[in-house]
């Protein structure tokens, strides 16, 4: 689905008039109408305002995700390459130890 259809759908789902939504979003009703009809394209700042207003992700508004509420990641949520390497090394060491035990058992 396209941005213009999505913002119109969200507004109608919530029972908000175009006039009220335009006022809340800080644009004229005429401009919101043009956005909803696909006559004009908005800027990124408006996309973010609409996402916050309807409590959905920008990816959802842009048709990139079917999930309305995308997760927001913080720096702590991002993988730490050093910790990932440590985990991989530990896993490899465990696998090597198991392989050595298995080969010793076969020899017995």
Structural account:
It is a single chain. With 108 residues, the chain is an all-alpha fold. The chain is 65% helix and 0% strand. The chain contains six helices and no strands. It has helices at 3-13, 18-25, 29-37, 44-54, 58-61, 81-107.
The fraction of residues in strands falls at: under 5%
> Helix- and strand-based class?
mainly alpha
What is the number of helices?
A: 6
Task: Provide the low-confidence segments as ranges.
Answer: none
Shape: rod-shaped
Query: What percent of residues adopt helix (DSSP H or I)?
Result: 55-70%
What is the N-to-C succession of helices and strands?
Answer: HHHHHH
- Alpha carbon gap, first and last residue: 66 Å
Largest sheet: none
Report the average pLDDT across residues.
Answer: 86
Sum up the structure in keywords.
65% helix, mainly alpha, 108 residues
